[in-house]
Amino acid sequence: AIMLSITIQRSDDLLDAPDKRLVASIGICAVLLFFAFPAANASCLPEASQADDDIVCIDTDTNPVVSGNGSDTITVSTGASLDVQGSTPATSVTAIDSGNQHDTVINFGSVSACLVTDTTPIALLNTDINNSWNELISVGINLGNGDDYFANHGSLVVSTTLSTSPSTATNSIVTARHGNEPPLTQVTATGVVGGNGQDVIVNTGDISVSVQDDTGSNSVSAVGINSGNGTDVITNTGTIIVTASSAQPDQLAIVPSSASSANPTDASEAGATATGIDAGNAADVVITNTGTLEVHSSSDGSVAQVSALGILSGNGKDVIFNDGVVNVTA
Q1: What band does 117 get if pLDDT is binned at 50, 70 and 90?
Q2: Which of 53, 59, 65, 165 is least crowded, fewest Cβ atoms below 10 Å from its Cβ?
Q3: pLDDT for 10-60, tens place per residue?
């Protein structure tokens, strides 16, 4: 893993001075989910098929674009908006899924994929949660496993929020877990997923990815760009902001029956990880950053693990050029 121009900052300081652009991005998702908007008429046409499609979004659409397995081109035009929202009982949202062939996806407008749910841990109460591993996932652009090209010249906002009311919790959630058992839920958000092909990913606009776990008892991960394991070229001349936050209310403090006050680290493997760019494990990946990478991870849980990575190059022989700003705080 490689981190450049790293600044270590306390989590509580970060909460006192959040990036205004990030707050604005989270606000977009919150507002869209708060109001019960009717589904917009499809403006991304033609509908996907198994052939080679050329899909263009020209207005506002709330339906995800899921193409078939042809070599497709998907364009979100300037002024167009693709806003895909999910709430309980949904456990995943993806704005654009281009399938597994050689695809081209270009965004000149606004794309968002936001999930706000209380599906877990409430849904797991009175169940065998020791053996449960659930996922809450938001993805902006899923390019699949072909040799793909993605360019973001507009705005891409992806967020996952797990919120729950402490008053509805019972001891079944705070006492059933033991020392090294996995967290209840994997809460993730990824801006761009490249798959395992040889991809070219370019950002000249704004990408904001955030994960917030209000229970503080899960595995939280936010990634701006995950190019997969192919031989990829990643270029950022714009702005990428990634945050992962885990906040543990006192009412939901994890107190496993096997833990003692003398060894509190046995209580949980919960934590928050934020990564700006993850290049995977293939060799000869070229990463160029002349823009801005803001990567922040925080937790107010007493036993949570917190980490932040600006650029993660994996195990391959990669080339990284940085003439921009990489600011990482945890």
Answers
A1: confident
A2: 165
A3: 334 433 443 444 444 445 564 444 443 344 456 899 887 888 889 999 999
Q: Are the beta carbons of 238 and 290 closer than 8 angstroms?
A: no
Torsional sign, CA 74, 24, 288, 276: negative
Other C-beta atoms within 10 Å of 300: how many? 15
Strands across the sheet containing 219-226? 65-66, 92-97, 134-142, 185-193, 219-226, 271-278, 305-312
Instruction: Kindly list the strands in the beta sheet with 104-107, ordered across the sheet, starting from the edge strand earlier in the chain.
Output: 44-45, 54-57, 73-76, 104-107, 149-152, 200-203, 233-236, 286-289, 319-322
Write down the pLDDT at residue 120: 53
Tokens, residue 182:
């996995």
Contact in structure between 32 and 85 (CB atoms under 8 Å): yes
Cβ neighbours of residue 116 closer than 8 Å, sequence gap 6 or more: 29, 30, 33, 85, 86, 87, 159, 160, 161, 163
To the nearest whole percent, how much of the chain has pLDDT over 90? 45
Q: Is 206 left (phi over 0), alpha (psi -120 to 50) or beta?
A: beta
For residue 272, which of 321, 329, 317 has the smallest C-alpha distance?
329
Q: State pLDDT tens for residues 260-312.
A: 333 333 334 578 999 999 988 777 688 999 999 999 999 876 556 899 999 99
CA 212/CA 231 separation, integer angstroms: 31
